[in-house]
Specification:
about 35% helix, Dihydrodipicolinate Reductase, domain 2, Rossmann fold, 14 helices, six-stranded parallel sheet, alpha/beta, 15 strands, binds nicotinamide-adenine-dinucleotide, 2 domains
């Protein structure tokens, strides 16, 4: 490990950017050397977080949509965390790689398949690894499932299910008090697709050996009617509110079915616009057993005590705890998965080595955004690009090995 601190910049210092800064400030070997936001006051708040925690004040960049260019050009950075609006993730990451800086991109890394390819090509050309910060891949339960899968306990994996089920109308898309749209709401007017697939599929791509022994070959997406936003506004702000009658393009429930080269199938739901508690509904099913996150249950043929009866998941999570969770994390403030993810990212930057979720994984997860839209619009299965250009056939498992 290098003894110099890893110099990290954060572009986009809104809610998520500030959360990530909060985690980075808990890492002794990190120095936040630059913060950048379209709004200078947001960047100053982020700089203040650094000084209040006893660290040096980072250089502050901001005021313009492309102020990140000056930050990336400053010579101050080994890595950059990108937590801006979705439309700028890929362009900032591309410039970072061109400048020899590791990008850690919040989700999704790209909005289009073309952008995903550019991330792959630029990472290959520059030799700079590129990681999407898909934090749910680093959750304790998901990593224990991965350990068990690699021990063969589920047999051959046949089918998975995952979802991002989270009613986001009143905090992500619209202000809960005033009903005013936030930047994410624009996407509800313009698109009808799985806009946010990566939390759902993040852990699953490793369970299914995607890019490492297998590959998605096609995706078929259907979207439901769009009623949730209208119903919410009618109920909360009255039937006369414009959003109670505006026709949004985005369907309430988006369901994608993906098939892999070896014949596995995956169902992904995107479900952000109807009242419901949060859920990811991860499920993995193989020739020897099944794991169900929502039931917090597992059944392993020939191993579970009762024939065809669920048993509790928690003892398995404890027994097959991944080594990343075997250290004492009790002193940390915040979500463990975010911390474990950033620790791995920083470790990779420190030695200029490979990142735990590579550019091919980031491209696959992000490509679902546009592919789901094309499939839903054209009502047909759409071929899934092979970002590895055939190397998936010989690539060894890599994430969290
Ligand atoms: N991984 C997770 O669990 C998680 C959770 C929440 C949000 N996110 C992601 O984080 C990102 C930001 O979300 P948020 O909730 O913090 O939004 P936010 O609106 O609170 O913050 C976004 C910030 O980015 C800034 N910004 C936008 N474009 C910029 C540009 N070109 N250059 C510099 N600054 C720019 C805005 O001024 C704003 O301050 C999104 O991509 C979102 O998907 C991830």
């Amino acid at each position: 490990m290098s003894k110099d601190p890893v110099r990290i910049g954060v572009v986009g210092t809104g809610k998520r950017g500030q959360k990530l800064i909060g985690y980075l400030l808990q890492l002794d070997d990190v120095e936040i050397t630059a913060v950048c936001d379209g709004s200078v006051s947001e960047a100053e708040i982020a700089a203040g977080m650094c000084t209040s925690s006893g660290k040096k004040k980072p250089s502050v960049f901001g005021g313009k949509k492309d102020s990140y260019r000056r930050a990336l050009d400053s010579g101050l950075l080994d890595a950059v965390i990108i937590a801006t609006y979705w439309d700028s993730h890929a362009e900032i990451a591309l410039l970072a790689m061109e400048n020899g800086i590791y990008p850690g991109i919040d989700v999704p890394a790209a909005q289009t398949v073309e952008q995903a390819w550019k991330l792959v090509e630029t990472s290959e050309k520059t030799g700079i690894p590129c990681m999407m910060l898909e934090n749910w891949s680093f959750r304790k339960d998901n990593l224990a499932v991965l350990n068990m899968k690699r021990l063969g306990m589920f047999g051959e994996i046949i089918h998975c299910h995952c979802a991002h089920s989270h009613n986001c109308i009143d905090h992500w898309f619209f202000d809960s008090e005033t009903g005013e749209p936030k930047w994410q709401a624009e996407y509800l007017m313009k698109h009808n697709r799985d806009q946010y697939p990566t939390h759902a599929v993040g852990p699953v791509i490793s369970w299914m050996d995607i890019n490492r022994g297998d590959i998605f070959t096609e995706i078929f997406t259907m979207t439901s009617a769009s009623r949730g936003i209208n119903a919410y506004f009618a109920d909360k702000f009255g039937a006369d509110h414009p959003n109670a009658v505006t026709r949004f393009r985005q369907g309430d429930i988006v369901t994608s079915l993906l098939r892999t080269s070896s014949g596995k199938t995956l169902v992904v739901n995107n479900d952000l616009l109807l009242p419901r508690p949060y859920s990811n509904r991860w499920m993995l099913q193989g020739t020897k057993g099944i794991y169900d996150e929502e039931k917090s249950s597992i059944y392993l043929a020939g191993h579970s005590p009762q024939y065809q009866k669920w048993e509790p998941w928690q003892p398995y999570e404890d027994k097959y705890n991944h080594r990343w969770y075997q250290q004492d994390l009790s002193s940390l403030r915040g979500r463990r998965a975010d911390f474990v993810m950033l620790r791995r990212f920083v470790d990779a930057v420190a030695v200029r080595g490979p990142v735990p979720l590579d550019v091919y994984d980031s491209a696959v997860m992000s490509a679902i955004v546009e592919l789901s839209e094309i499939s839903a619009r054209e009502n047909r299965p759409v071929p899934f690009p092979d970002f590895t250009r055939g190397r998936w056939k010989t690539n060894e498992p890599y994430f969290a090995v």
